[in-house]
Amino acid sequence: MSKSIKEQVMELGRQARIASRALMGLSTDDKNNILISMADVLERHTELIQEVNAVDVAEAKKNGLSDALVDRLVLNDQRMTAMIQGLRDIAKLPDPVGRVLKSWEKANGLKLEKTAVPIGVIGMIYESRPNVTADAAALCLKASNAIILRGGSEALRSNQAIAEALQEGGRLAGLPEHSLQLVPMRDREAVRELITMDEFVDVLIPRGGEGLIRAIAENATVPVLKHYKGVCHVYVDAEADPGMALAIVENAKCQRPGVCNAAETLLVDASIAAEWLPKMAKVLLSHGVELRGDERALSIEPKMKPATEEDWYTEYLDLILSVRVVDGIEEAVEHINTYGSGHSDAMVSQNRERQDYFGRMVDSAAVYINTSTRFTDGAEFGMGAEIGISTDRLHARGPVALEELTTYKYVVRGDGQIKE
User: Fold this and answer.
1) CA–CA distance from 155 to each of 123, 209, 220, 376 (Å)?
2) Read out DSSP for 215-281?
3) At what angle do helices 77-92 and 46-62 cross, to 10 degrees?
4) Would you give the end-to-end CA distance of the chain in angstroms?
5) Which domains does the chain have, with CATH numbers?
C-alpha cells in the first residue's frame, strides 16, 4: 500500500532529524571535502541537468509562464558554472560552528562558554530558480544543518537532477544519509505538512514572492525566517552633495530594479527640491523610469504622475519610483518607518548629526549613509553566500549567511561545584 503525502513528508522529517545529529560530528575538513565532491559531481552532470532543465523550461512556456519567470528557470552554461563555483566558494569560508561567542569565569570557579552550534533541520521553500537548490544545500550543510528542500513545481525536474548530483557527491565524501532531501511531489499538501512539522523541522526559510512568504508565515507552526517585500527608500537631505545624490538614486533604482534591495521611494528635502529634483527626474526619465509624485513633487516636475496612498506601500520591482517632498529629516524618518518594510533605507547628507539621527531612528535591517541600498547582500557584506534576507527582528536580521544558520548553547565547566 502506497504511503500518503503526510506519511512521506513525515518520513523526510524523521530522516532529517537523525541526519542532523550525525552532522554535528563532522569536522570542518569533512564538510569542505563534501562540498568540493558535490561541486565535482555537479560539474560532471552538467549536460544531464541542462537536458532535464530544458524540459522544465519548455513546459513552463507551454503553460504560459511570463518571460521573466521562464528566464529564472533557465540553467545556461553561465548559471551552471556559477552554481558549481558557489559550492567551492562556500567550502573556503570559515566554519560557523564551534565558534566561542563569549567566555567568562564566575567567582565560584565555573567557566562558561557561549558556543555556536547548528540549528538542526532547516526547511527551504522557494520558487523558480533551481540554482537555489545547490546554494541553500551548501550553506545549510556547511553550518552542519540537515535540509529539506521544496522548490517550485515548475522546476521539479531540474531540482531533482541537481539534488541527486549533490547527494551522489555527498555520499562519495561521507555525508550522513538523508542530510539533504528534496520533497519529491508537486502537491501543495506536501508544503502544508512540511510547515507544520514542528517535531522535526526547526526553522523554515521561504524564498520567493510576497504571496508565497505570507502564505507560509500565516499557516506555519514552525518558526519562519522571512521578508515579505523590500519597500526601500532614499532620502536626499538639505545638506546632500548634489552629484552624489544623483548617482546614488540612479544606482538604487536603475541598476537592477527587479530585486528586493532596489529603491522604490525617493524622499527629497523641501529646501533643495526645486533645484535638485528636476535634475534627478531627467536622469531617471532617461532610463525609462515612471515617476509618481505627491503634490509638491508634481508642482516641481510636471512629467510625474500623481502618487496614491497605495504607492507608498508598493514594492514595484520595476522601473517605477514614488517621489515625495518632505520638510526635514524627522518627516523623512516618519515616512520610512510608516510605509517601509524594514529592509534597506538610505540617506544622502554631509551633516553628521543628521546622519547619526537617521542611523539611530530608521527601523530597518540595513541603514545606509551616503551609499546605495543595492549593497544589502551577503557577498557585498563580506559574509560570502547568503540564503536570503530577513526583515525579522528575532534571531537573524538582514543577509542570512553562515553565521545566521547557527544558534548557540552554553558549555559550563566546573571542578565539583554544587549549588548551595
Assistant:
1) 17, 16, 23, 27
2) HHHHH-SS-B-------EEEEE-TT--HHHHHHHHHHHHHSSTTSTTSEEEEEEEHHHHHHHHHHHH
3) 120
4) 59
5) 5-226+396-413 (3.40.605.10), 232-375 (3.40.309.10)
Q: Are strands 388-390 and 398-400 parallel, antiparallel or unpaired?
A: antiparallel
Residue 350, SS3 per DSSP = coil
Give dist(CA 399, CA 172) in Å, integer.
Answer: 31
Instruction: Give 297-334 pLDDT, tens digit per residue.
Output: 999 999 999 999 999 999 999 999 999 999 999 999 99
User: 373 vs 251, 299, 366, CA distance in Å?
Assistant: 9, 28, 8
Amino acid of residue 364: S
Buried b (16+ CB within 10 A) or exposed e, 215-251: bbbeebebbbbbbbbbbbbbbbbbbbeeeebbebbbb
Q: What pTM, to 2 d.p., does this model score?
A: 0.91
What is the Cα Rg of the chain in Å? 24
